[in-house]
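hey so i finally got around to running both of the ones u sent me last week. sorry it took forever, my laptop kept dying halfway thru and i had to restart like 3 times lol. anyway pasting them below in the order u listed, first the sequence line then the structure token line for each. didnt double check formatting much so if smth looks off just lmk and ill redo it

first one:
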Amino acid sequence: MPLFRKRRFGSRRSHGATPRLMPMRRHSRFDDWLNRCVDIAVVLALLVGVIALVVHLLL
């Protein structure tokens, strides 16, 4: 039993109608700053949740 299935007609390319390239994303300082703020907020929310869970389980 082969590990990989053979592709029909020996095709390795995708079968989309038109090949598309990924658009170039411009990094702005505001986007980077906002991403950093969201990361910090998520980490703080996780810390508060873990602390609340520990306090709840211990008391």
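and the second one:
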Amino acid sequence: MKNIKNKVTKTGFSIVALITSNMVLAGHSQTEPVEYLIDFKISGQFTGFTPEGLPVYTINGPGFAPLWIAGSGEVTDYTPHWRKTADLENGQITFSGQPTDPVIRFSCLTGSCNLNLKDGAVLTSDAGVPLEGRAINMWGPVVNSPDFDPVAGINPIRIMGCGGLKEIAGEGKAAGMVGSICFNGVLNFNQNDPSQLTGSSKCTITLHTPADPSIIP
């Protein structure tokens, strides 16, 4: 009975939060640049090497609109399935350096990281500004992450980075826009099976309409 009550309470909270957030947005639409906050859950695997010999991982995964942002600015981790708003499709990530380096650099191959938004917009890297990041080994694993599993060899490592995006489908609110994506999350490195890669990150995407679209790479 208690579980049913908790489920009903959570459902009720979700509905109230959705209605409230939609009312707030309706009354306060954004001027450009337009900003999005999307929580991506990714998984992928090793798929080969670049001509320069760098390992390539191909990753995919859904992105969700966070249900709530507290007055402190803290963002909830609760992302019900009905808040899905995007998909990362066949992003190809390369890593440089050694797995034990204090800082591991990685980048997304140009044109490979496509974000498909639910309104039909397609954002692709990198509009002339490479999407690059760093995994910070020297900070150690995120031991309070639910993915941390030293027995299975899963180490969540903090990541950070930014890069350019442009909309290429001509659809949705972001049609024809250009801008940036920045991420702060984790990659879960699997020491027992280095071919596997998972992770998550709440990403900010900021877009505007270019004065001259023809100059955007």
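quick thing i noticed on the 2nd:
Strands lie at 34-49, 55-64, 84-96, 103-108, 114-117, 122-124, 132-136, 154-167, 178-190, 196-208.
anyway thats it, ttyl
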